[in-house]
Amino acid sequence: MNRNLGILAYGSLIDEPGDEIAGATAEILREGITTPFPVEFARSSRTRAGAPTLVPVTVGGTRIPARIYILHGNVSEEEARDMLWRRETGRRGRRPNSAAHSNPGPNEVIIKSVADFQGVGTVLYTSIAANIVQLTPKQLAALALNSARSAEVAAKGRDGISYLMAALRNGVRTELSAAYEEEVLRQAGAATLADAIERVRFVGRVAAD
């Protein structure tokens, strides 16, 4: 099979590529794939009620396990860039011209590429700026717990604790992940992350009553 074009999946894209990317995928590379850049839980996501998410960083961070979705040969690079942009933004249509400029805004989803990576001609990936100023386990845990208090977000599994659980399940270990997990458990008074979610949801229900 020709491996000319692929999409690098790290973070939630590993488990949730979306129907469009999944339908365009011919093969998935799983073994021995890591991000070509360091990553950390350094962005508070608006669509996840402020939950910390994994983004590329220039200071600290760790190269983490990833996957590459090899796309069918009839998918052009431009189509793949638009496809990935739609997955990351939840929008329709094509990327705006601003999504290709060299000086993006703090909330701009930029689709970048790396050539000849892991035997694939061109691999596309998402880059969005870190925005958590106090990047400490205590702050990450506070953001994760607060996001889980949103009934709508938690019901969809889009809260920070669920995101952290999925990341750890996929082998993600960053400079802060161990201390971040411990701090979530400490602040929630829980033994496991799953227990932490239930405790937060229970408190939310009690408060609502």
What does this structure look like?
With 209 residues, this protein is α+β, with helices and mostly antiparallel strands. It folds into 2 domains: 5-127, Roll (Hypothetical upf0131 protein ytfp), CATH 3.10.490; 137-208, no CATH class. Helix content is 36%, strand content 21%. β3 (39-45) and β4 form a beta hairpin. α3 (137-148) crosses α6 and α6 runs parallel beside α7. The termini are far apart. Residues 205-209 have low confidence and may be disordered.
CATH fold title of the largest domain: Hypothetical upf0131 protein ytfp
Strand order of the largest sheet: 2-5-1-7-6
Q: Tell me about the largest β-sheet.
A: 5 strands, mixed
**CATH class (first level) name of the largest domain:** Alpha Beta
User: If you average the pLDDT, what whole number results?
Assistant: 89
Order of helices and strands: EHEEEEHEEHHHHH
Radius of gyration, taken over Cα atoms and rounded to an integer in Å? 18 Å
Q: Count the E strands.
A: 7
Q: What is the beta-strand fraction?
A: 15-25%
What best-fitting shape do the alpha-carbon axes yield? elongated
Q: Indicate the structural class.
A: alpha+beta
Residues in helices, as a percent range: 25-40%
